[in-house]
Amino acid sequence: MSAIQIKRIRTIYHVLVSAAIVVAGICLMVACVGIYQTGDHPFSREVVAAAFARIAVPVYLCLGLVIAGFVLYWLLPVEERRLKPDLTAPILRRLQAQADLSQAEPAVVAAVQREQKSRKLHQVISVVLAAVGGAVFLWYALQGNSFHQSEINSSMIRAMLVLLPCMGVPFAYGVFAAYHGQLSMKREINLLKPIPKTEVAAPKGRFDGVFIARCAVLVLGIVLLVWGALENGAADVLTKAINICTECIGLG
To answer: What percent of the chain is modeled with pLDDT above 90?
Structure first.
């Protein structure tokens, strides 16, 4: 069998297993919502077993396709090509350091500045959205009436409904910003290539903004962990986890 035929079979398999995973995931979510709406204490062993029995076919089909994938890759091996590293950012930094914009046309200089401003704007918006989303969910989580020991299931569902938009919107915009940034850097590289180059010395090590931001996030994470431990947060999380797990799988 030729490499093209093997690649085609693998492509068909990937489509099938992706569709099966999506269908199985939807069935699981629908079953969980249905279980939750059956009563005050719905997550008993019998109710969960009956609900999951109705979606056994798509779940087992998905599992069978996953297992078949290992067999397929063993029977039809292909030589995997090594992915080339993305050199867009290093090339752009080198061109930015070497390009002499004083010898470029004003229209080219304006286009380069427009691309740089566009990337910075999207980065700032991504950071702001992530900060606002995190602050909103943190404010909700720290409210004393957000979680109740007698209503663990409904409390967690309300928390997830708050968390999804708070984290989903920044994540989606971050993906868009990353995709836009790649295209923008490639356009800027094409603009900088024809510009005469000047020899510059290799830059010395320095603390850039990304490094400072990573250190700040690390320090903030450590502070929040210590604060949570001192406020007996680990015991609260453990209690909620025990209640959720025991109700879900029907122990006790």
So the answer is: 31
Helix (H/G/I), strand (E/B), else coil: 99: strand
For residue 81, CA distances in Å to 14, 24, 84, 193 come to: 18, 32, 9, 29
- Smallest CA-to-CA distance from 94 within 175, 197, 180 is with 197
Return mean pLDDT, the chain: 83
pLDDT of the residue at 252: 43
CA distance 61 to 55: 10
**What are 99's strand-pairing partners?**
197
Q: How do the residues of the chain divide into helix, strand and coil, expressed in percent and rounded to 5?
A: 80, 0, 20
Tell me the C-alpha distance between 34 and 210, whole Å.
45
pLDDT tens by residue, 224-250: 888 877 887 777 777 777 777 666 655
Angle formed by the axes of helices 56-75 and 45-53, nearest 10°: 60
* Residues 6+ positions from 46 with CB-CB distance below 8 Å: 250
Distance CA 188, CA 180 (A): 12
- Rounded alpha-carbon distances, angstroms, from residue 121 to 115, 124, 173, 240: 10, 5, 12, 40
Q: What is the pLDDT of residue 203?
A: 53
Alpha-carbon gap, residue 99 to 248, rounded angstroms: 62
Distance between CA atoms of 78 and 13, rounded to whole angstroms?
A: 15
Alpha carbon distance 243, 245 (integer Å): 6
**Would you say the pTM of this structure is higher than 0.70?**
no
At residue 200 the predicted structure's pLDDT band, cuts being 50, 70 and 90, is low
